[in-house]
Amino acid sequence: MIQNISKVVQRITDIENKFSPKPPAAAASFADHLKAQEDILAPEIKRKSPEKTPVYEKGSIKDMIVQTAQKYGVDSNLVLAVASAESGYRADAVSPVGAVGVMQLMPDTARGLGVKDSFDPGQNIDGGVRYLKQMLDMFGGNTSYALAAYNAGPGAVEKYGGIPPYSETQAYVKNILSDINNG
Fold it and tell me: Which long-range contacts (CB under 8 A, 24 or more apart) does 83-90 make?
């Protein structure tokens, strides 16, 4: 009887070890940890090999962006600047934290927007523009707050009552606004 219990306990331990994330090594950077945990963070994302990923010309991506922005009543220059900052207009872009495609949609956000294939530029752009529109509506048309929410999440903007004090988010907002004003 005790031997059977020991086998069950060992099997449970084996299963836990197989499916539980391992803690990062003390010397590893946060980025290294995220990269090492990529399958845990976003298991449904499978990097597509270049030969399987359709190649889209930047011009056609930009055309899709302009058309989709017009469809949802969002300034196309704003959406072009976001796509440029997020992925450089690359449909196959995947960030270290699992954001995917031209508009760098996180898997949960994409699912919430009904995007089935984040690598499909049409779906990704449509979802990204709708999400940006939601952020603009949520923050009363305030472009800076909407951009900060797109980058850091709407909760962070609400928590800080504006652009969060994250250097990445502050630079993101500043760079996109500068791109729009100089474009």
Answer: 83/125, 83/128, 84/179, 85/172, 85/175, 85/176, 85/179, 86/128, 89/58, 89/61, 89/62
Q: Check: CB of residue 125 under 8 Å from CB of residue 103.
A: yes
Tens digits of residue pLDDT in 107-129: 999 999 999 999 999 999 999 99
DSSP designation for 20: S
Find, among 148, 146, 142, the residue nearest to 172 by Cα: 148
Q: Which residues are catalytic?
A: 86
Query: Which residues, including other chains, have CB under 8 Å from residue 147's CB and lie 6 or more apart?
Result: 82, 135, 172, 173, 176, 177
Please give the model's pTM, rounded to 2 decimal places. 0.70
